[in-house]
Write a structure and sequence with these properties.
Blueprint: E1 2-6, E2 10-16, E3 20-28, E4 33-41, H1 50-64, E5 69-74, H2 77-82, E6 86-88, H3 94-97, E7 113-118, H4 135-139
Parallel strand pairs: 4-5
Antiparallel strand pairs: 1-2, 2-3, 3-4, 5-7, 6-7
């Protein structure tokens, strides 16, 4: 596994053998918060731990950078739960929802769920029953695509 540090302290990670197995990025948003982005695993390697290894490497990179929290927006929250993340509301991540979500092309049809990990071991505030999640539901008050 290798990574390179790019502008804005963004790490691109890839598991490499003769072929690319998977990739993801750690994007630092603030001095204490980073996002796991662009996670992708080659379909033939799905279910073999490649994605988990990439996410855990991002988490370790965040620790080395001295960050306190790591989050991901995902369509597969169960995967991130298995990596130790907690399902939460995007409303608990104003650093993301106020800066990037309003200009995202998916803002009117956002179906991604916010997953959060506190690096100090404390448990993030989980998504409450009936609490809206995703930009479209939370800030526009409607279902994606409606």
């Amino acid at each position: 596994m290798s990574y390179t540090l790019r502008g804005r302290a963004e790490s691109r990670l890839a598991a490499l053998l003769p072929v690319l197995l998977g990739c993801c990025a750690l994007a630092v948003l603030t001095r204490d918060l980073a996002e796991v982005r662009s996670l992708a695993v080659h379909p033939e390697r799905s279910g073999r731990g490649v994605g988990r290894a990439l996410v855990l490497e991002c988490v370790e990179q965040a620790r080395r950078l001295g960050l306190r929290r790591v989050f991901a927006l995902t369509l597969v929250p169960e995967f991130f739960e298995r990596c130790g993340f907690t399902l939460t509301s995007l409303g608990h991540l104003p650093e993301k929802s106020a800066s990037e979500c309003p200009v995202c092309p998916k803002r009117f049809a956002c179906d991604e769920q916010a997953m959060l990990l506190h690096l100090d071991g404390s448990k993030p505030l989980p998504l409450a029953a009936g609490e809206p999640w995703g930009y479209t539901r939370l800030f526009l008050g409607r279902e994606p695509g409606s």
